[in-house]
Amino acid sequence: MRNTPDGLRAWLHRHPLIPDAVLAGMLAAAAVPCAYAPSLAGFDAPAGLREPGALSLALTLAGCLSTALRRSRPFAMLFLVVLAEVTLASLDQSGSLLWVAALVLVYTVAAHRGLALSLCALALSLTCRALLAVTVTGPADRTAHLFVAVLTMTLWIAGRGARLRRAYLAELRERAARTERARESDTRAARAEERSRIARELHDVVAHHVSVMTVQASAARRVLATNPDGAREALSAIEEMGRTAMAEMRNIVGVLRTDAAPAERSPQPGVQEIPTLVDQMREAGLRTQLWIEAEGGPLPPGVDLAAYRLVQEALTNSLRHAGPRARAWVTVRQGPGELAVQVEDDGRGAEPPAPATDRTGHGLVGIRERVALYGGILRIGPRPEGGFEVNARFPLKDV
């Protein structure tokens, strides 16, 4: 135990029987002389008061020592004290300091027990005071009992106030704990959402660039012997695509850095970068046409990025599955209150197009999550005239 007031207070709080036993011992030690000199206890000696005997001393000591158990059984100890006072009064013996023990126990019941039991304790103590007032004849003694009754009411009110204050402080601590738990839960949810977002971004970047690099490498291998210049251009495109992929991945995972000075990150791509994306797909061998019709102000950053990733994933799937001589069309229309993004391909080529179920992998699942996140509508599936289609509509409430 630390030798400080706070440490001593905490130790006594953990061992309440020790201070209660000390209080009971002091009260019992003071009650014995007061039994022989009632004026020391605050009362004048009434006429006919007998000299205390062994029974009266035993009852007095038992009542005073009962306060040692005031934390565990306060109402039972109060009943014992009241019974001792009434018994001593019936024997014309002095109650000594039993009224002090009764005050202590009334306060304890009010401060540590419920309202119903504390009201019973108050009623029991006041009834005892009324009975004792009836047994005395002098006005001074009646005044003294009235004074004790007022003290009883005062201490009962103080005990109830202390109990309500403790309950209020406990509620504040519980509310603070709930707030802290909710904050930690929100933090975990935000981290999980951020991890999910980073996973989607990494998938889109890696799937797109690796698919383009694979197509370019396959083309370079086929023309390596007959067209070295063409193979060299394809290899240069692969090198440039690899650098671009690495740069984008560094930008994405840069948010995971924990050092004090993270690297600066370039803005996330959006609709304005779609022409560059279409040029990359053309270089990879996918004949792509682009139409952009923009009306209104700038797009919200989240919708802007989602539209770019949608076009990127859809063109990557067309490059991988639509066939070597397929064509693709990209249409982006920004109208009042809505952004429409459509990517189509004809799926015609020397090789038969892959089934539609093979073209809805994890990337398009991520696209569904992006579109749903911003309250959009998404359609993914085959076109009636052949080929494949990805069609999304984003509401633009803030534009």
Automatic annotation (TrEMBL):
SMART domains with a match to the protein in the record: HATPase_c (SM00387)
UniProt domain Histidine kinase/HSP90-like ATPase: residue ranges: 302-398
UniProt EC number: 2.7.13.3
Keywords, comma-separated and alphabetical: ATP-binding, Kinase, Membrane, Nucleotide-binding, Phosphoprotein, Transferase, Transmembrane, Transmembrane helix, Two-component regulatory system
Membrane-spanning segments: 21-41, 53-69, 74-91, 119-137, 143-159
Alphabetical list of InterPro entries matching this protein: DUF7134, HATPase_C_sf, HATPase_dom, Sensor_HK_TwoCompSys, Sig_transdc_His_kin_sub3_dim/P
Catalytic activity: ATP + protein L-histidine = ADP + protein N-phospho-L-histidine
Annotated GO MF terms: kinase activity
Class in the EC hierarchy, top level: transferase
Protein name: histidine kinase
